[in-house]
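Narrative summary of target 7.
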Amino acid sequence: MITPVLSYSEVALAENVRRLNQVVVDSDACWAAALTDVVSMCLLRDVVLPTTKMASCWTVGDAAYLAEAGFDQIILIGRVVDTDALRRLQCIAERTQILAVIDHFRHAELMSQSAQQSGREIQVLVEVDVGWQSTGVRPGPDASLLATAASRLPGLKVIGVFASATDCRTEREPGDSDKDLASIVTIADHALRSICDVAGECREMVVSVTSVSRRSLPDTRINCLIVSPFIDFDDDSHDSVRQSCVCLIATVVSRPTLECCVIDAGRIAFGDASAPRVEAPSGASILHSTPETSTLQLSGEASDLRIGDTVRLVMRNPERLLNRVRLS
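Modeled conformation, tokenized:
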């Protein structure tokens, strides 16, 4: 086996999918699985699709992959502005319903051109800036004007607003996501109300989050929650009892001392060296990392590791691990 490589647990993923579905069903909402083409087609079709027919992604390439898997609706969060991507989007729109997120009239123009050429209507969500000044239009008049202008373009149907509760600048602690979500929902609700005054069909609020607990949907204002099926739940205790949905398998390539070993996975594979932990064997912890390797401090069971043995690493946010491996 060539490492580092991702390893998936179908059992753990199925349990996550079941719990996610229960959270949204209890709140009278639906959920769209945040996915990429890193996830195997078998897992998509056997585990995720039986529970939700909605998916979300950032790129047109991922959208094509998810459409091939069989998802009925795909929320495309990333902006599509180049000619090749728009041409590919036309083909995808012919076999699945696309919900495109926009925050500028130019995005709407390009989507309208794509919709007219494919002959399929594209539904549109106006992204609302929740204060991070990375994407989104300001709630209030700016959001209303964009929704009004986009709704007049042929082939488009503006159906609501999108807001992201994902702040990539910091690693969130358990419970923080619920506080963030409450304020973000309030901002999105304000924007939706202002848009409804000029476009009566805009009734959907779609929110993207990175973690979920049973408190994550405080009211029924959220119609659709975008969340990765690989996330850990905020109310879980992070011990070795519960298996992770996805982990990184690495190989021991050196044993410089009795107290440490070196594995072939570093910051290129998993990013911040403080984020991952060694799930197996027990007694190993990350001492420090280079871009290509990590040095583990060993004790207990891990003291028996030999060159060629494998170790299993997991992260607090498994979705970050998926994205890191995808970029490496």
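The two ends are 18 Å apart (CA to CA).
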